Amino acid sequence: MVSVIGSLDFGFVCDLELGIWNLLNMRVHNSDIEAILGAVADLLEIKGDNPFRVRAYRNAVRTIQGLSQSVADLVRQGQDLSELPGLGKDLAGKIREIVETGTLPLLAEMQSEMSAGLTDLLKVPGLGPKRVAALHRELGITTVAELARAAEEGRVHDIEGFGKKTEQRILEETAKLQQRGAQRLGLVVAEQIAEPLAAYLRQVPGVQEVVVAGSYRRQKETVGDLDILAVCRKDNPIMERFIGYEDVRQVVSQGETRSTVLLRSGFQVDLRVVPEVSYGAALMYFTGSKEHNIAIRKIGQAKKLKINEYGAFRGEKRVAGRTEEEVYAKLGLPFIEPELREDRGEIEAARKGRLPRQVQEQGREIDHTNKGLKGFTVLKATELDILEDGSLDLPDEVLRELDLTVCSVHYKFNLSLKQQTDRILKAMENPHFRILAHPTGRLIGAREPYPVDMEEIMKAAQRNGCILEVNAHPERLDLNDIHCKMAKDLGVKVVLSTDAHRLNDFDYMRFGIGQARRGWLEPDDVINTRNLKDLRKLLKR
DNA sequence: GCCGTTTTCGGCCCGACTGTTTTCAGTCG
After folding, report:
1. Average pLDDT, rounded, for chain A
2. Which nucleotide is nearest to A310 (CA to C1')?
3. Rg (CA), chain A
4. Which nucleotide is nearest to A272 (CA to C1')?
5. Assuming Cys at both sites, which of A64, A174, A213, A490 could form a disulfide with A148, CB separation 3.0 to 4.6 Å?
6. How far is the CA of A295 from the C1' of B27 (A)?
7. Full-model pTM
8. CA-wise closest residue to A459 among A421, A432, A430, A496
9. Distances A191 to A105, A195, A473, A489 between C-alpha atoms, Å
10. Nucleotide nearest residue A160, measured CA to C1'
């Protein structure tokens, strides 16, 4: 903190020398700019202006929220703001104006034309721009207090599109709003609510997964509500159990796939139920952030893919959705950690293989766990992307700490045979490369293998002491039987693995064994058959 | 108002649920 203040002081001295008095006196903060542009967006929306113009203002707010530098400093340094994403010539000019004068004439104009308080009305849950506009037009309401009074006096339900229920809800919500503002919980309190509820839901028979998604999973500093995702069949009684939870005070809405309740504390919890094939897509969807999801869907659109909570679809056909990794991979992206999903540059970083490294912590936990285990050892391993240029997506200093690396191609399937083969060969030269996972990338009936010279790859594996996976997932079976035989003939060891993303998936092992047997493999060819000591030897290069 | 590996105009994310309607608009996430 001290150093930040120090640098500002230093900035002041420079400004004085340059004589830029107006900038000195204002010191417009990013939050000031966000507030002004946000208010413009709200008022434009209430006014019924072009929704895409509204969105442009909101996007600008987000862009500024994601900046680590002060916009005022950027302006001072002469940076062209229109180079920032979502800012064109017009908005860049308006932002410059705010920095230089502290105000925006457009906002002042609209506030005098409509009323500044209208933006507060949007904070009432259930009221959007259309209803706020109607309340203003029909009853001249401009503040939350006026709205509360109108609802009390029963004047709201006469407006077209409003009814008794809406009026009642307005009454409740305005009371809450006036009482304490919008409630957000700290992570500790959120955890105390979320974990027992999730544990309760996991006990419902037939429920395969229960995950708390939303800002809780993103570990945002405060949590506005809880979004819980469950995987089970449609006829599962989980919804009944959910609304019957002892801490539920009110059921806000209830449907087959989604319900919302308020807990006694007033905290809102949503439960969404999805089928197993949609688990990954739904988890992404409900983890958010909304902005990240929008950016993801846009990428999908460009690739002719429709992304929703049920999967990634090409036309009517679901091409991904079971896991988050699968959906990201369809978009040509590696997995992005939930904590990064804010649309603040993480997608671009993922594209370039420059996501921050967050794996060392796990290694320390495994060390700690192993100390308490007898006759059982957890190995440290990770699945790595083979990037387009054949490098791996974690640095050597991280890989050095691992017992095992599982490397695979997850995007850019459409390279030529030579390019794809060279990519993998180059990756194998990395001394930390251990296992090549699902070596052809095929999904049976859904995606053809990418073109690759398997014989070259096996020879390189043999040379470099790398191991090839026989992925036992019934949608993959990769290596296939023919390739298993090729591995045996060339003296390449294989590993059978299930690609398990949940406990039940371990049952897939039998399919992998089936392929290995069809490929003439014997126990000695398969490293799963080794004891720990021999396995470690095999994993050394 | 922004934007472009189907580009300088014509698009702009998508579905569930509620309340108000009598087939859908509005809101939310």
Report:
1. 85
2. B15
3. 28
4. B16
5. A174
6. 21
7. 0.54
8. A421
9. 45, 6, 34, 54
10. B20
User: How large a percentage of chain A has pLDDT more than 70?
Assistant: 93
Tell me whether strands A258-263 and A248-254 are parallel, antiparallel or unpaired.
antiparallel
| Cβ(A435)–Cβ(A406) below 8 Å | yes
pLDDT at A183: 65
Amino acid sitting at position A455: E
CA-based torsion, A308, A314, A316, A317: positive or negative:
negative
CA angle (A448, A451, A456) in 5-degree steps: 135
Proximity of residue A268 CB to strand B below 7 A:
yes
What band does A9 get if pLDDT is binned at 50, 70 and 90?
A: very low
Same domain for A270 and A283: no
| Nearest nucleic acid nucleotide to A297, CA to C1' distance | B13
Domain that holds residue A315: 278-351
Last residue of a domain, one of A153, A180, A207: A180
Q: What is the pLDDT of residues A195-229, one digit of tens each?
A: 889 888 988 888 888 999 999 999 888 888 899 99
pLDDT category of residue A488 using cuts at 50, 70 and 90 = very high
Which two three-digit tokens encode residue A293? Answer: 């999801």
Q: Are A30 and A117 in contact (CB under 8 A)?
A: no
pLDDT beyond 80 at A81: yes
Q: In this structure, is the CB of residue A162 within 7 Å of any atom belonging to strand B?
A: yes
Q: Burial of A248 by CB count in 10 Å (0-12 exposed, 13-18 middle, 19+ buried)?
A: middle
Same domain, residue pair A426 and A444: yes
- Are residue A390 and residue A454 in the same domain, yes or no? yes
Q: What is the count of structural domains for chain A? A: 5
Chain A residues 310 to 329 with C-beta below 7 Å from nucleic strand B: none
Residues 48-67 (A) near nucleic chain B, CB < 7 A: 50, 52-53, 55-57, 59-60
DSSP string, A95-122: HHHHHHHS--HHHHHHHHHT-TTHHHHT
Integer angstrom CA distances of residue A439 from A420, A505, A529:
11, 20, 21
Q: Which nucleotides of B are covered by protein (CB under 7 A)?
A: 1-3, 6, 11-21, 25-29
User: In angstroms, how far is B23 C1' from A401 CA?
Assistant: 62
Nucleotide whose C1' lies closest to the alpha carbon of residue A305: B13
- Is the separation of the CB atoms in A476 and A442 below 8 Å? yes
Cis? peptide before A479, omega within 30° of 0 = yes
Domain final position from A133, A149, A180: A180
Helix, strand, coil: what percent of chain A each, to 5?
50, 15, 35
Q: What DSSP string runs through A73-94?
A: HHHHTT--GGGSTT--HHHHHH
Percent of residues, chain A, with pLDDT higher than 90: 33
